[in-house]
């Protein structure tokens, strides 16, 4: 996470983190469906409007690092060294995401997500949004239209590699296996 530079930005970031931490603690203690927005706001000592100024929906409280994950994927494309191949840079970033989400300390959150249809649906829509952002970054990097089927396909495959790896017995091996297929598909495309 990027450190906010000004006092006001630091205060906003601290409030956001306090809300997210409080929500997650309550969800893990009581269950996602048994905790309301008002419960989270009261426990975090903020107004409901303040909570919604930081998080657009109850589900977003569980995925508070969503924007950071999306930025990481885009940076893996946009900030790679000149001449560094695209697919290995993406593989490295997906490995980092998978390590984060499959770490032992992430297991309670993963269980919480799996236990809630609302959270699973939100996670799926989040992945689709990440794929769109990643496809746009790939297209911009290559100077092709955002609607490029090859860029959109590779982005979706990269996001799916993350999802499949998080469910696999050996997450790192799963990322590598999927990325071998992505590399072959990318090499076969006209954009590689």
TrEMBL record:
InterPro entries from the UniProt entry: Homeodomain-like_sf, HTH-type_TetR-like_transc_reg, HTH_TetR
Family matches, as Pfam families: TetR_N
Domain of life: Bacteria
Keyword match Transcription regulation: yes
Keyword Ubl conjugation recorded: no
DNA-binding region ranges: 36-55
Molecular function terms from GO: DNA-binding transcription factor activity; transcription cis-regulatory region binding
Name of the molecule in the record: TetR family transcriptional regulator
Organism expressing this protein natively: Streptomyces nanshensis
């Amino acid at each position: 996470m990027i450190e906010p530079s000004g006092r006001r930005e630091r205060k906003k970031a601290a409030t956001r983190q306090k809300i997210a931490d409080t929500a997650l603690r309550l969800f893990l203690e009581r269950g996602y469906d048994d905790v309301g927005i008002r419960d989270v706001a009261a426990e975090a000592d903020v107004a409901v409007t303040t909570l919604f100024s930081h998080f657009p929906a109850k589900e977003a409280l569980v995925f508070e690092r969503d924007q950071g994950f999306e930025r990481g994927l885009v940076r893996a494309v946009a900030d790679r060294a000149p001449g560094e191949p695209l697919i290995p840079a993406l593989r490295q970033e997906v490995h980092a995401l998978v390590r984060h989400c499959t770490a032992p300390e992430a297991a309670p959150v993963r269980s919480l997500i799996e236990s809630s249809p609302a959270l699973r649906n939100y996670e799926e829509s989040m992945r689709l949004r990440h794929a769109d952002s990643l496809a746009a970054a790939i297209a911009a990097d290559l100077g092709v239209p955002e609607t490029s089927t090859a860029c959109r396909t590779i982005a979706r495959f990269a996001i799916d590699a993350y999802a499949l790896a998080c469910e696999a017995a050996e997450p790192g091996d799963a990322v590598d296996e999927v990325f071998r297929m992505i590399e072959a598909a990318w090499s076969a495309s006209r954009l590689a």
